[in-house]
Amino acid sequence: MPYRAKVVLAVGLLLSTTMLAAGCGTTIDGNPVASSGSPTEPSFPTSRPTRTPSTSSPTPSAPPTSQQPGASTLTPDESGYVFIETKSGKTRCQISEADVSCETQFDSPPEQNGMPANGVNLTADGSMTFVVGNLGNIPVVTLDYQTYRALGWTIEAGGDGTRFTNDGTGHGMFLNTSGLEVF
User: Fold this and answer.
1) Alpha carbon distance 158, 66 (integer Å)
2) For residue 154, what pLDDT is reported?
3) Nearest-CA neighbor of 124 among 78, 49, 56, 61?
4) pLDDT of 12-56, one tens digit each?
5) Cα separation, 16 vs 70, whole angstroms
6) Which of 148, 171, 177 is nearest to 74 (CA)?
7) pLDDT, greater one: 37 or 172
8) Three-state DSSP class for residue 13
9) Where does the pLDDT of residue 2 fall: very low under 50, low under 70, confident under 90, or very high at 90 and above?
């Protein structure tokens, strides 16, 4: 290819790249607000964590406060999380060793940054914050009314709500759509 043709080609590619990059820099000011007819989350095929009866569990660093014999163990997915949904379908949670994050349909939601909170995050040390957000299309295991263990947490699912207790620290929360109790 002659030198002149290479220069023209290089300049053309440079201009094309510059115009494409300039088109990607649009910013729209404002605050996002969901409409009442918000679209649902897209559905993607995902693997589901499995439930297996507990045969043995590691000894926590401090005595557990609510460890139940015969509790079912929820196995984390490949990213190290357990995702659950209550039997009523009104609460979904993401559990890790460090914290539990749940979204729920609060009857009277508290405000968080000027918006009604639809979630809560509780750390193993007992720090709690209300949040506004959506866990998305997570691969949940639907809980029955019984006791479960997952990643150092004991989960007691009942008809009146769900109790999460960190086995190492004893801190936790009792959550239902009527409210939240942190301990």
Assistant:
1) 14
2) 98
3) 61
4) 444 444 444 444 444 445 444 444 444 444 444 444 444 444 433
5) 65
6) 148
7) 172
8) helix
9) low
Structure tokens, 94: 């993401």
Distance CA 103, CA 134 (A): 7
The token duo for 43 is: 């559905």
**Burial of 181: CB neighbours in 10 Å, binned 0-12, 13-18, 19+:** exposed
**What tokens does 82 get?**
């357990």
Q: Say if residues 156 and 162 touch (Cβ distance below 8 Å).
A: yes
Question: Which two three-digit tokens encode residue 52?
Answer: 């297996």
Q: Are 163 and 172 in contact (CB under 8 A)?
A: yes
Residue located via tokens 């999380």: 81
